[in-house]
Amino acid sequence: MSATIIDGKAIAETVRGEAADRAAALEAATGVKPGLAVVLVGNDPASEVYVRNKARLTVAAGMASFEHKLRANTSEADLIALVERLNADPLVHGILVQMPLPGHIDSDRVVLAIDPAKDVDGLTPANAGRLVLGRGGLVPCTPQGCIILAKHALGPDLAGKEALVIGRSILVGKPVALLLQAESCTVTMAHSKTHDLAGHCRRADILVAAVGRPEMVKGDWIKPGAVVIDVGINRIAQEGGKTRLVGDVAYEEAREVAGAITPVPGGVGPMTIACLLQNTVTAAEAQVRPGA
Ligand code: NDP
User: Fold this and answer.
1) Which residue, 153, 146, 91, 96, is CA-closest to 119?
2) 150 forms bridges with which residues in the sheet?
3) Distance from the alpha carbon of residue 100 to the mean position of ligand 1, in angstroms
4) Which residues form the Tetrahydrofolate dehydrogenase/cyclohydrolase NAD(P)-binding domain (predicted)?
5) What are the pLDDT digits (tens) for 83-103?
6) What pLDDT is attached to residue 292?
7) Closest residue (by CA) to atom 3 of ligand 1?
8) What backbone torsions phi and psi does residue 134 show, to the nearest 5 degrees?
9) Which of 2, 194, 249, 274 is the one with CA 20 to 30 A from 71?
10) Is 193 a catalytic residue?
11) pLDDT at 168 over 80
């Protein structure tokens, strides 16, 4: 039997709608419109598309969007000075510095400069620490999206499920594993040194692949009925010089075995911006009504 396809596009639309409702309620109650500042250094075409989409969807959700486009040769000091101005700007509740940054800039130092209260990407050590300690804070967007999608497939209670996360990056793998642990899953984290990855996969009720290797997870690695969340975005060449996006999971094989699966594109991808908008409202609410 073929798997249920988890429609990330539709679920993301619902999440953006919820963010818009909360933004409107905050503005009606306090007069404050949540604001998101996005900083782009250089003109990487993929990053420019992301930033444009973020701005468009921020405005569509009734929030203020502030775009800062800096030249590729901007110094680290000038970028940090901008971040500090945004930290102090009462119209800005969320700050996102688009990664990757040009090689001459130390991205760790830039992230450290962001006020954790406005860190809507959830990347500052303060927010990462809160996630480890289970003390709230702003959670990275793509991992949050993975959990929402898993709950769509399995219902709100993930307790006791065997979860395997392939990948341990700070941006995706680690926070996904921590969030699944917070949901009382039994979590295994796999990485490039893991032995018998296929064996680990075959035990997983929830399998999250965040590797960056096209179609690495094969259909016969998947436990029948498992929920497969494919974070990978890989562009592969096709005949005739064209390219196509694929995930880290061999989708056609996997959908014959899995219970539910996210497609690429249209699965995890759209959730990232939706969760960014949610984080922006959460940050604005906390800044406008501290302790509420
Ligand atoms: P990283 O390159 O930072 O991390 C990749 C992880 O995969 C590492 O932990 C690495 O292990 C592990 N890995 C590499 N090879 C293997 C292997 N053969 N077997 C098992 N594990 C392996 O990538 P990211 O976490 O940033 O991104 C992962 C993927 O998700 C990419 O395709 C990226 O494009 C996509 N992505 C999608 C987003 C979305 O919105 N949908 C957002 C962010 C990322 P080790 O630690 O040992 O090196």
Assistant:
1) 96
2) none
3) 15
4) 140-287
5) 999 999 999 999 999 999 999
6) 66
7) 169
8) 70, 35
9) 274
10) no
11) yes
- 141-269 matches 27-116 in CATH topology: yes
Q: Which residues contact 92 (CB under 8 A, 6 or more apart)?
A: 35, 36, 37, 66, 86, 118
List the chain domain ranges: 27-116, 141-269
**Residues at CB less than 6 angstroms from ligand 1:** 142, 166-169, 171-173, 190-194, 197, 210-213, 231-234, 268-269, 272
Is 107 annotated as ligand-binding?
Answer: no
Superfamily per CATH, domain 27-116: Leucine Dehydrogenase, chain A, domain 1 (3.40.50.10860)
ipTM of this complex: 0.99
Is 121 annotated in the active site? yes
DSSP state of 1: -
Report whether pLDDT(1) > 80. Answer: no
* Active-site residue, from 118, 119, 121, 230: 121
- Annotation marks residue 115 as catalytic: no
Q: Is residue 289 annotated as involved in ligand binding?
A: no
| Residue 20 clears pLDDT 80, i.e. is over it | yes
**143 CA distance to ligand 1 middle (Å):** 12
Residues 263, 249 contacting (CB under 8 angstroms): no
Q: In this predicted model, what pLDDT tens digit does every residue of 42-80 receive, in sequence order?
A: 999 989 999 999 999 999 999 999 999 999 999 999 999
Q: What is the mean pLDDT of residues 147-160?
A: 98
